């Protein structure tokens, strides 16, 4: 009998939100989807933080001009003509300096924004790995580019799952729109969809805002961030393939 292997797949996001890490915690293996084309206005190069006026997008400028259809994420270059690193760090300091645990993470962010990042994937993975370590998440990561995939979209997901020997696949909610569940079933792979209910925790400013960068959680909850993300039963999976 095939050994159970739960797999999740996601593009490497900039300062990802909580749901991004929730899927990884529920996986035995996480595939970083790094070989696909960059899409404008995606979270690969931007995410939100909280300010007294509401949510604020922090966007890393990237070089896309004249490269339509030739922008795989793992080759996407950052446009360092503007001092976006200083701007992003300043925004975090201005809006979170009064957060209970800001000083705990300030040195990491300061060092991160002092580096001369060239590719967006290197920046993103630096942050993602830091968060995984801090939260004690030990799920192994593998890059899709290392698996030499040939398919696209829904077929790509199935191909990647097959190449790593997945028995279960955890999809984001939008996977319902493009995954061929019958094909997964024929290949002996169960599909579950993430139904993420965002936890509430202590935040700065009035009215709780969800779907922010996990940096918001870190600054506000510090060492208890893992308990908020991993210790609370606030996220479930709905079956989309064969029943067990």
In the sheet with the most strands, the strands line up as: 5-2-1-6-7-8
Largest sheet features: 6 strands, mixed
Query: Runs with pLDDT <50, length 5+?
Result: none
What is the element string, with H for helices and E for strands? EHEEEHHHEHEHEHHE
Helix content: 25-40%
Rg, alpha carbons: 18 Å
Percent of residues in beta strands? 15-25%
- How many distinct helices? 8
- The whole-number mean of residue pLDDT values reads 92
N-to-C terminal Cα separation, in Å?
15 Å
User: Which class do the helix and strand fractions yield?
Assistant: alpha/beta
Integer tally of domains:
1
Number of strands: 8
Silhouette: globular
Give structural attributes.
244 residues, alpha/beta, 8 strands, 16% strand
Topology:
Elements: E1 6-10, H1 18-25, E2 29-32, E3 46-51, E4 54-59, H2 84-96, H3 102-114, H4 120-135, E5 141-143, H5 153-164, E6 168-171, H6 181-186, E7 190-196, H7 214-221, H8 225-230, E8 235-239
Parallel strand pairs: 1-2, 1-6, 2-5, 6-7
Antiparallel strand pairs: 3-4, 7-8
Helix pairs in contact: 2-3
